[in-house]
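Team,

Forwarding the record for the chain on the shared tracking sheet. I've put the sequence and predicted structure together so nobody has to dig through attachments.
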Amino acid sequence: MHAIEKILARNAGLPSVKTGEIVTAKVDFAEINDLYLQTVYSFYEMGGEKVWDNTRAAFVFDHYAPCPTIKTASNHNEMREFARKNDLKYHFDVNCGVCHQVMAEAGVVYPGMILVATDSHTTTHGAFGALGTGCGATDMACILMTGELWFRVPEIIEIRLEGKPQKGVYPKDVILNVLGRIKADGAVYKAIDFTGSYIDALDIPGRMTICNMAVEMGAKTAYMQPNQAVLDYVSPRAVRPYEVVTTDPDFVYAESHLFNVSEMEPVVSCPNDVDNVHPISEIAAQNIPLNQAYIGSCTNGRTEDLGQAAAILKGKHIPPYARLLVVPASRDVLRESMEKGYIQTLIDAGATLVTPGCAACLGTHEGLLAPGEKCITCTNRNFRGRMGSNQAELFLASPATVAASILNGRITDPRPYLD
């Protein structure tokens, strides 16, 4: 079996599982973000009284942090009351950050677990050797009542990434290159196992970026075999004993795709589809003007990402009438970035610092776009209307490309700025 299948089998109390089988498995941790107050309503409508385990569930207030409307403020209050009533051990309010970042920092994510959250980008946690997947409000209410959920055992495809990246090629460029070939519907309800020498050597921020965007190919979950960087990060934080699960050597993937990272160059995902990917050299030649740049989100809002941007912008300033929004993924990221001087450098370059959280990524507040505006962003989706007006345009790229581009006021190849 594959490691994903072993995790499902163990939590379902079965000796083995196979593709297509539907099993009921125990959930190790459940997270509800502030878009999903309906989870609370569904919980009570189905007769729920108390959360099955108050140490294995949490609310994270990240999509509306701080609240932009009276309605969202009311939603937060109802969710806080539910958390208090159930004495939840973990509660991440508007001062904490994006769910996928803060859960990892809190140690509730570890190898071999099943983590279910009301967020499609829960695939991020495959970076730690966990089975992470999203669900809706009703399914989440069932988890809160019983601690279990049904799962269909997915087909598992391999994306093997070999080689070493050239200068200026970051994990965001790698996953966008993959998306350009596999396409947005290439892994619908499948699991993606990222393997190869590139993954074996990759740090945690890079692993999280790549697993985060697996869902943009339709994947139900993503997986990476934990490396030493993961174990060094998880071991002092994990709130429970964990087991690193391995794939049997004779396991046969449903599909296998090979990529040579050494041959990749920086790329941009152009409006209005994530898989509309083109080389930076091609797009930069078009001199596309920009109104806004955005560095943050559960994809690229970590300290290392802010550091990449700060290195390019140090001692420089963005053009007049241009905007650069910087949104740390968590309070800890903000603190660490301040200690390293990244925040000061970015502010001196003309950036606007935004509260840790999701902010404008989903188009609700803190940096929305007007009709006709163009934004380059290191978030994960560039759908029409994603970050404001449906007449605005979004370009996805690495933090380095975002920084170099807003510095010039047009989409720009970052490589000449890397020293």
